């Protein structure tokens, strides 16, 4: 008889927990309890993976969606040791927001935010971790200056998600900002 209980005239080896032959345990050798624990770990890992991929993240109720004709940059070359470039990016975003009439009163509760980079012509998708680095922080600071949020602390902005979108027909790069009530 082999390790799975096959062969010979001897009875087929079964699980000590339930007595089911090992071959009926989907080819896995172990007790029911071990299989259940393995399944539980697998389910937990799958849930975690879907969260990481953004599949099951519940942002809340959408309360505001604005698309801006601005380009997010990822600052892959670094922010540098000077604040001049970052300050210029923030004031550029703020000027654009004000010119387009996007000043507003601050949300009175903590909100979740999704920032979506909409690709323009000849742009490529970035690594997912690059979406919220670089000028996304300056955009967030410009939104605070334009009154969207009291400040950008965790007391007022909870979850922040960065996303990318490749439209069928590409024009100029854009950024969509969505605010959710958790």
**Structural class determined from secondary elements:** alpha+beta
> Any idea what the CATH superfamily of the largest domain is called?
Holliday junction resolvase RusA
What is the chains' assembly state? Answer: single chain
Distance between the termini: 59 Å
Question: What's this model, at a glance?
Answer:
This protein is 26% helix and 18% strand. It has 182 residues and is an alpha+beta fold.
Structure description:
The protein folds into 2 domains: 1-56, no CATH class; 61-181, 60s Ribosomal Protein L30, Chain: A, CATH 3.30.1330. It has 3 helices and 4 strands, in the order αβαβαββ. By secondary structure, the chain is α+β, with helices and mostly antiparallel strands. The termini are far apart. A 4-stranded mixed beta sheet has the order 1-4-2-3, with no helix packed on it. Strand 2 (111-118), helix 3 (136-145) and strand 3 (157-165) form a beta-alpha-beta unit. Helix 2 (84-99) crosses helix 3. Mean pLDDT is 76; it is low at 1-8.
Record the SSE blueprint.
Elements: H1 32-52, E1 61-68, H2 84-99, E2 111-118, H3 136-145, E3 157-165, E4 174-181
Parallel strand pairs: 2-3
Antiparallel strand pairs: 1-4, 2-4
Helix pairs in contact: 2-3
Q: What key phrases describe this protein's structure?
A:
single chain; 182 residues; alpha+beta; 60s Ribosomal Protein L30, Chain: A; 2 domains; four-stranded mixed beta sheet; globular; disordered N terminus
């Amino acid at each position: 008889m082999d390790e799975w209980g096959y062969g010979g005239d001897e009875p087929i080896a079964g699980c000590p927990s339930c007595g089911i032959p090992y071959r009926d345990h989907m080819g896995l050798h172990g007790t029911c309890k071990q299989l259940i624990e393995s399944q539980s770990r697998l389910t937990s890992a799958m849930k975690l993976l879907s969260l990481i991929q953004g599949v099951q993240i519940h942002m809340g109720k959408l309360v505001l969606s604005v698309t801006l004709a601005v380009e997010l940059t990822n600052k892959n070359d670094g922010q540098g040791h000077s604040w001049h470039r970052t300050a210029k990016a923030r004031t550029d975003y703020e000027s654009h927001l004000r010119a387009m009439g996007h000043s507003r009163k601050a949300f009175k509760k903590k909100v979740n935010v999704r920032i979506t980079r909409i690709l323009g012509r000849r742009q490529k998708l970035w690594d997912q971790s690059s979406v919220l680095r670089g000028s996304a922080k300056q955009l967030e600071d410009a939104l605070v200056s334009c009154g969207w949020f009291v400040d950008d602390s965790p007391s007022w902005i909870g979850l922040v998600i960065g996303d990318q979108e490749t439209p069928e027909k590409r024009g100029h790069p854009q950024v969509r900002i969505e605010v959710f009530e958790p």
